[in-house]
Specification:
263 residues; alpha/beta; Rossmann fold; 12% strand
């Protein structure tokens, strides 16, 4: 199993193997993302649906192997439908975790995703691949740490792996506001101790036997790509918007390259 920022051969542009640059800080980090690039995501999705990739071409054959998809922050099932379609068309037993908009306390989304993971594991009798977009990738990593016997791979797509909240203000402000809201009871009772336990798991050492892959884009208008590097992760660069990472040809190819790593 590879690590230490090794890279995959895909049809997209890859990192050159140099040490990853440090994330931008201060005003540059808070204001510097090119959010206007996210306007291309509808075009990316339309192009994907007209391509051979939409028919499963170029995706490793699933042979009914299980995959759990975890959508991102404020996203929900709809944003993961294209990835679900491509995977099931290629023969994967893909399930979207029932995390709703994935906007509440981490424990709520993780509990829902863990329930789906256990059900999928018990039904198939096979270790699960988790594909998590953005915040979903963070939760996929945590779930793998908590259930190392049920997971064989985590593919974190457009995921900030080194921080809880992306530095970009457009994302950080609503995320932190919601964080404060649930602490005040806006989502009902929340176990604060459990939430702190989850936070403690975000950066613990990742299990050696589980493959961790980070798929990212320099033109991601939401998450600074520099936050997507981790020592335990194999790094894959593609060219896509943040939402396009799971709704574009380039994003699907990056995910396909990741899935091909594990038999």
């Amino acid at each position: 199993m590879t690590s230490d920022h090794s890279h995959l051969e895909t049809e997209e542009e890859l990192n050159d193997g140099r040490p990853p640059p440090k994330p931008k800080r201060g005003l540059a980090g808070m204001l510097g993302r090119p959010i206007w690039l996210e306007a291309r995501s509808p075009v990316e999705l339309r192009t994907l649906k007209r391509s051979r990739v939409w028919r499963g071409v170029g995706i490793p054959e699933g042979n009914d192997r299980p995959v759990l998809i975890i959508p991102g922050f404020l996203a929900g099932r709809k944003t993961a439908n294209a990835l679900h379609h491509v995977l099931t068309t290629a023969g994967w037993d893909a399930v979207i975790a029932p995390v709703g908009r994935n906007a509440g306390p981490a424990q709520f989304s993780i509990d829902a995703a863990e329930g789906a993971l256990t059900e999928l594991y018990e039904r198939t009798g096979q270790p699960i691949r988790i594909i998590g977009h953005s915040r979903g990738g963070q939760f996929g990593r945590i779930i793998a740490v908590r259930h190392p016997g049920k997971v064989c791979q985590v593919v974190a797509v457009g995921t900030p792996l080194t921080v809880k909240y992306p530095t970009y203000l457009v994302v950080r402000l609503p995320a932190e506001a919601l964080d404060r809201a649930w602490r005040l009871g806006a989502f009902g009772h929340v176990d604060i101790a459990k939430e702190r336990e989850i936070d403690d798991l975000r950066y613990v050492e990742f299990p050696d036997h589980i493959d961790l892959v980070s798929v990212w884009s320099k033109s991601d208008g939401i998450v600074d790509w520099r936050l997507s590097f981790e020592d335990a992760a194999t790094s894959v660069e593609v060219k896509a918007s943040h939402l396009g990472l799971i709704n574009s040809i380039a994003g699907m190819r990056g995910i396909a390259a990741a899935l091909a790593r594990v038999d």
